[in-house]
Amino acid sequence: MWGGRFAGGPSAIMREINASIPFDKALWRHDIAGSRAHVAMLGAQGIVSGEDARAIDEGLQTIAAEYERNGVPEDWDLEDIHMTVEARLTELIGPVAGRLHTARSRNDQVATDFVLWVRDACIRAENALKGLMQALLARAEEHAGSVMPGFTHLQTAQPVTLGHHLMAYFEMFTRDRSRFADARDRMALCPLGSAALAGTGFPIDRQATASALGFDGPTRNSLDTVSDRDFALEFLHAASTCAIHLSRLAEEMVLWASQPFGFVRLPDTLSTGSSIMPQKKNPDAAELVRGHAGRIIGCATSLMITMKGLPLAYSKDMQDDKPPVFEAAGLLDLSLAAMTGMIADSTFQTPRMRAAAEAGFATATDLADWLVREAGIPFREAHHITGAAVKLAEERGLALDALPLDELKAIDDRINARVFDALSVDASVAARSSYGGTAPDQVRARVAEGRKMLGTG
Ligand code: ARG
């Protein structure tokens, strides 16, 4: 394809280090779409004859059908997907195939293919996130009133509702979804026509190719265009943040499924057994989602480091942009699917969660708040009195609301029988009805808003 000025072919090692076809064949659909838009424009502009443009377009369609059926052949001598398609086109229609690359370089070609691919990956992630968010809404509604311990420092803090806890993840995934959509907004300009780095002298119509490929218009600076991989970096950033959220959810599933917690039974379909311990049901899918997050973040780091030292415009280092993006996208697709199944099909052990909330003095804040409200005691003093009550309960091995009234009165005689209304975990969550709080009514309101936002209710 470029042998004119060379005396001999590349060494075996050159062929191997140079070949991107093993991975960039994933771009074949976008490569052929880009070439069809390009040749239609060349024909319309009279840069190639209408007859040649038609022959080329038919050849490209034949190749697409072949690849669809049999996959893309991997010949290292052909380097990459662009050369692979062109070589096959030459076999099919002869030397006229050589007119396709008029007013184009692989540099603007690969930038176009890749941004099209990343745009699709964003749309995939947005759709998968929507599915996960719908699953969260359904389970949150079901468990709007299910009480569990809320934690800080992984120590029992205050009772919360399981619905509220699940809706916390809904918020994270809402932000993730908007990050992918927002990144996609900046993928609206088409690289094709920037050529190698400086543009071209042929009378091309960049608006035409941009529109044909679903872009708003052409990019504005050819040097920037062929050396820009911000779109891939933005995708990897959005994927990394999303993976962090998936990993935290996965970590909680692992923790909750453990015997000491016993908060959840994971679906059999997303668990595995042990070859030696017959009683085991392991949360492998959740663990792998947690693991994959590390790999996705590694992919983002990899491309940032590839890009950070490159002078303008294209350098071959940039061929290394694709493996981390493809890897991260594949891992993210899988992780989203696994967590959607886990949320939809897990069995939450609500009696166990409630017992844990009742066991950990989780309503101590409610006692302090009651002393402030009912007895007019300053909060700091109320905090101290409550501390003494917790100490006593701990010594006696009782829950706070099981302490006899006279013993509470002995700590502070402003306490009366009405305090027991405030000390149940249900009273505690119901009281936290400030906007965005854990009260069941608040959770139901947020679920309704979430449905509206997703256009599903
Ligand atoms: N396979 C190359 C890549 O992915 C295509 C661009 C090659 N351009 C070049 N000037 N050698 O980056």
Automatic annotation (TrEMBL):
Residues 361-430 form the Argininosuccinate lyase C-terminal domain. Keywords: Amino-acid biosynthesis, Arginine biosynthesis, Cytoplasm, Lyase. The lineage of its organism: Bacteria, Pseudomonadati, Pseudomonadota, Alphaproteobacteria, Sphingomonadales. It comes from Qipengyuania spongiae. PANTHER family: ARGININOSUCCINATE LYASE. It catalyses: 2-(N(omega)-L-arginino)succinate = fumarate + L-arginine. This is Argininosuccinate lyase. GO terms for molecular function: argininosuccinate lyase activity. Pfam families: ASL_C2 (PF14698), Lyase_1 (PF00206). PROSITE patterns: FUMARATE_LYASES. InterPro entries: Arg_succ_lyase_C, Argininosuccinate_lyase, Fumarase/histidase_N, Fumarate_lyase_CS, Fumarate_lyase_fam, Fumarate_lyase_N, L-Aspartase-like. Belongs to the lyase 1 family. Argininosuccinate lyase subfamily. It is found in: Cytoplasm. Residues 4-298 form the Fumarate lyase N-terminal domain. Pathway: Amino-acid biosynthesis; L-arginine biosynthesis; L-arginine from L-ornithine and carbamoyl phosphate: step 3/3. The keyword Amino-acid biosynthesis applies. Its EC number is 4.3.2.1. SUPFAM superfamilies: L-aspartase-like. It is an enzyme of class 4 (lyase).
